[in-house]
Specification:
The complex is a heterodimer of chains A (600) and B (201). With 600 residues, chain A is mainly alpha-helical. Among the domains of chain A are: 23-200 and 257-300, no CATH class; 206-247, no CATH class. Helix content of chain A is 60%, strand content 5%. In chain A, strand 4 and strand 5 (447-448) form a beta hairpin. The longest helix of chain A has 35 residues, at 565-599. The two termini of chain A are 23 Å apart. Chain B has 201 residues and is mostly helical. Chain B has helices at 2-34, 36-39, 93-108, 135-148, 153-162, 179-194, 196-199, and strands spanning 43-46, 49-53, 117-118, 132-133, 164-165, 176-178. In chain B, the strands form two sheets. In chain B, strands 4-6-5 form a three-stranded antiparallel beta sheet. Chain B has a two-stranded antiparallel sheet with strand order 1-2. Classes of the chains: A mainly alpha (600), B mainly alpha (201). Chains A and B meet through helix 1, helix 2, helix 3, helix 5 and helix 6 of A and helix 1, strand 2, helix 3, strand 3 and strand 4 of B. Strand 3 of chain A pairs parallel with strand 3 of chain B, so a sheet runs across the interface.
Chain lengths: 600, 201
């Protein structure tokens, strides 16, 4: 750990906190349908959009209609994205002439991007045409985020309204999120990225003549483009010399901006935000971390405004940021300590003013350890899943930070919208547990929490562990699952656990050594992503509908105040307890055993 | 449900045009207008030929050049059409062997140097395209490069410090040296030293 590293951590939290109130206030204006400034310019566009799509913007929806609209929109989105990948070879804006994406991979990718997961079993620059990246992937980056935000504001309306049958209009929430919040912010972030060096062009990939030609072993392929094998079954190679470097470029910055703002995380290039054309400087790294935490954090303030008590929002945010800070510091400590097995080989890994030191495998020199640790924690605490380093090469405890943050159910900031509605479910469970202790009917924000609400809340927190641990178990006992492992020993288990944790929580980051582009992983992972996103979304809307119908119960002497430091502690306790009890056994067998082996 | 079919389909089409076509085109237009060099890949062009990008590293293993971060891209290092890291875990013997081999390779070309090697010089970067090394990794190599080029070590070190970038805004990231730019500058310096009449009018 260095002083500079700590300063970088403080700087991130400081800037984030400073932006929460203004942006949260603005988003509340947008979602309450009040003048927000931009509506003067974009209002006519918004209204003609509704006319074009046959939407009556004043019509309110019951939770069932809201859920149907949300599901239909996402099913069409899923199908469109699948189709686009399958026919990209026939379409324009495909300078590298990529063919159709294989069916299982196309399904996985379509599920991944519509669910705001952005798990990638492919390398962007070697698989997807510019057209697919723009009109398929970028689009879902926007609308999956807007969907999450819409479900959240519907849920907040459920808490805020009394004796109401309706919770808003999905189309209005979707359009207003996209038009007034996501698009303007994405424009700003994209241009800042390009100014620093991120690429944004429709040109073909560039060819450069390298300064020193590279001697290498070139894999030999047969007539069908398949690798030829020698007598021992190993791929045959022949010596070759590369005189040129092909530089993959493309319309990257526009997609990178929204992939972070929307907690999506799917890289334009395979190396994601480690790629210098996505994130060329330490400032862009800072900007991307800020972008991926910004909306999730500011929405807590929006929530406070919409329920008429901003202290409620700050309480939730305090719980989220307290956990995040601890994990950032933990990850930073683990990665600064470095890899003891490398230190013995005559290598200097002590951090100093002239070198980052620590565990640099899989990390970029311009970012060093501190930036990488903040990024890794922020990308897994939010459901972003973009990476500026290869998580598979982290120290065992550094990797555990990312795994555990996802296993809380993506509620430590979490996804845009989904993180906060997940955390509010935990708040309901927290008041329920507190109510049990004193024997009173629990209530949250004046709404009585009764058996139906508790059933929904319990289902909401149980689905994810069942999906994640169930699929991990299946993968570890089948050849189809274990054949994809890259790293031996307990790390192999961590790779599988990470894959399903990431997909089952709609995160999208990976222990990339695992070969995830197989029919087995593409299919099971795709189903996990769909189940986690939409099952939870529908239950959340059902809960919103039930809460909206309730009358307001005035706070009495026995009501637990939910805006106090005590409630922050209670809420953190519930989140840690549920996540901890569920996943600690699996973590013990993976990263913790590996840590003991590495130190031993 | 039927009532929502038309909005669902038309919303998807309209939002696809808005966010998938108009938005990226607008960003591209503004980017090409204000930042044409960056938007097209920050290319290093000399005499009309492209020698690479300032932001993308290249592979060097001759003693007369500074070496960059090891790169795990396939089939050859620094393949900028297939970025990625090694993904090797910290306890994987393959990683330990790879580091051993890199240490050995650096020792062979620089047998008198028994200083510990800065860790970023023997571990693969995340992108496989990292253009930078730490200032420590550059100074470690300065003597070898100077010897191989029959240059004064101090003039090489001076060149290194000219190509050292400090933390951005004094705070963000790490100090770093751009390897490709440094090596191009070295070639230029040596041309001037070896054949001084070339630089004369």
């Amino acid at each position: 750990m260095t002083i500079n590293g700590l300063v970088q951590i403080v700087l991130f939290f400081g800037v984030l906190l400073a932006l929460v109130k203004p942006l949260g206030w603005y988003m509340a204006r947008v979602h309450e349908g009040k003048p927000c400034g931009l509506d003067r310019v974009l209002g006519p566009a918004e209204r003609s959009l509704y006319r074009l799509c046959g939407v009556c913007s004043h019509e309110e929806m019951t939770w069932k209609t809201y859920a149907v609209a949300m599901l239909l929109f996402n099913v069409f989105g899923l199908l469109a994205l699948y189709l686009l990948q399958r026919i990209q070879g026939l379409l324009p804006l495909n300078p590298q002439a990529f063919g159709a994406v294989a069916p299982d991979l196309a399904f996985n990718t379509a599920a991944s991007f519509t669910t705001n997961t952005n798990w990638q079993a492919y390398g962007g620059e070697s698989t997807m045409s510019y057209l697919t990246q723009m009109m398929g992937l970028t689009v879902q980056n926007f609308v999956s985020t807007a969907t999450g935000m819409a479900i959240l504001v519907a849920f907040i309306r459920g808490l805020a309204r009394r004796s109401s049958q309706t919770i808003g209009n999905f189309w209005v929430d979707l359009v207003r999120s996209t038009l007034y919040i996501l698009l303007p912010l994405a424009m700003i972030v994209a241009l800042l990225l390009v100014g620093q060096g991120a690429v944004q062009t429709f040109d073909d990939y560039k060819t450069a003549r390298v300064v020193q030609p590279v001697q290498y072993e070139k894999p030999v392929t047969d007539g069908n483009g398949q690798p030829s094998l020698d007598e021992q079954g190993k791929p045959k190679t022949e010596p070759a010399t590369a005189h040129h470097q092909i530089l993959a470029v493309g319309p990257a910055a526009s997609q990178v901006a929204i992939k972070h703002l929307g907690t999506n995380g799917g890289g334009f290039f395979n190396a994601n935000a480690a790629h210098p054309f996505e994130s060329p400087t330490p400032f862009t790294d800072f900007l991307l971390i800020l972008a991926e935490t910004l909306l999730a954090a500011a929405l807590t303030y929006t929530f406070g405004v919409m329920v008429g008590d901003t202290r409620q929002g700050w309480t939730i945010l305090a719980a989220m940021l307290a956990v995040l800070l601890v994990f950032v510091l933990g990850g930073y400590l683990a990665e600064s300590a470095g890899n003891p097995r490398i230190a013995t080989l005559g290598v200097d890994h002590a951090p100093s003013s002239v070198q980052p030191g620590g565990n640099m495998e899989g990390k970029e020199a311009r970012f060093g350890i501190a930036r990488t640790a903040i990024f890794a924690a922020a990308t897994t605490a939010t459901s972003t899943g973009a990476v500026d380093s290869m998580h598979d090469s982290f120290t065992p405890l550094g990797g555990l930070v990312s795994l555990f943050l996802m296993q809380f159910g993506e509620v430590i900031l979490g996804g845009v919208g989904s993180g906060l509605y997940g955390m509010l479910v935990f708040a309901i469970i927290a008041v329920f547990i507190a109510g049990l202790m004193v024997g009173r009917t629990p209530e949250y924000l004046g709404k009585k929490i009764e058996p139906y609400e508790m059933k929904m809340a319990s289902l909401l927190i149980l689905i994810m562990p069942i999906v994640v641990l169930g699929l991990t178990a299946v993968a570890t006992v089948t050849t189809a699952g274990t054949a994809s492992i890259l790293n031996p020993g307990p790390h192999g288990l961590s790779e599988i656990l990470y894959a399903y944790t990431s997909q089952g929580n709609n995160n999208g980051s990976a222990f990339g050594g695992l070969n995830a582009n197989t029919v087995f992983y593409n299919t099971t992972g795709g189903l996990a992503m769909l189940a986690s996103r939409f099952w939870l979304a529908v239950l959340t809307l059902a809960l919103a509908g039930a809460l909206a119908r309730k009358k307001l119960t005035p706070a009495g002497p026995g009501t637990l105040p939910t805006h106090t430091p005590l409630f922050v502690v209670l809420l953190i306790g519930v989140v840690l307890l549920v996540g901890g009890l569920t996943f600690v056994p699996a973590l013990a067998l993976g990263p913790i055993v590996e840590h003991l082996l590495m130190m031993g | 449900m039927k009532d929502q079919l038309r909005p669902a389909l038309s919303m998807l089409i309209v939002l696809t045009v808005l966010t998938g076509l108009i938005y990226p085109l607008a960003v591209t237009g503004l980017a090409q207008l204000f930042f044409p060099e960056q938007a097209n890949g920050s290319l290093i062009v000399q005499d009309g030929k492209v020698f690479g990008s300032k932001l993308i590293g290249q592979h060097f293993d001759e003693p007369k050049y500074f070496w960059g971060r090891p790169s795990a891209t396939a089939p050859f290092p620094y393949n900028a059409a297939a970025s990625g890291g090694s993904n090797l875990g910290p306890t994987n013997p393959v990683l330990i062997d790879a580091v051993k081999a890199r240490v050995a390779a650096l020792r062979i070309v620089d047998p008198d140097n028994d200083l510990p090697i800065p860790v970023d010089l023997v571990t693969a970067s995340g992108s496989g395209l990292d253009p930078h090394i730490s200032p420590a990794a550059a100074s470690y190599q300065a003597k070898r490069v100077a010897c191989a080029r029959s240059l004064n070590e101090n003039s090489v070190l001076a060149l290194v410090s000219m190509h050292t970038e400090e933390r951005q805004f004094g705070v963000l990231g790490e100090p770093r040296v751009n390897v490709l730019e440094l090596n191009l500058a070295l070639d230029e310096l040596q041309d001037a030293v070896v054949s001084p009449d070339r630089s004369r009018p």
